[in-house]
């Protein structure tokens, strides 16, 4: 399944297979998105079957792994744990999330045969009508046509920020066909 010798020596699991009943899982995944907060690093991983899961690095582990978990990198992650995804910033509709330990290892992987990003495009009418409200994250094709200044609420350490902007709809099928013609 993997072209690297490290992957061929490990029993790799897919995201659909992992659960908290076992500890120290191994899998190959692509880093789809990564963002940092004050106390942790969150990222979204996708496996070769197109299933996504949220992963969290606590503050003390960020220096050990952050440089290896760049967006678009395909990595082999070993000896990680799985917990219930009940945090305040749940962005993937998956019952579990991945937790890193000091013993977790991350190394570059090769031989990716899955989808690259696993987009979940939602038409604007479904967003405006509220149909998409039940989804945690969506992808849209649009153009930012207006933005307001960044609003900052509260004081540190409970401060949060909000950016309001307007998007103009770009019909995904039209956008895709125009991109293919170029």
From TrEMBL:
InterPro entries, per the entry: NA-bd_OB-fold, RFA1B/D_OB_1st
Q: Which residues form the Replication protein A 70 kDa DNA-binding subunit B/D first OB fold domain?
A: 13-108
Q: Name one Pfam family in it.
A: DUF223
Where in the sequence is the signal peptide annotated?
none
Name under which the protein is recorded: Replication protein A 70 kDa DNA-binding subunit B/D first OB fold domain-containing protein
Source organism per UniProt: Tagetes erecta
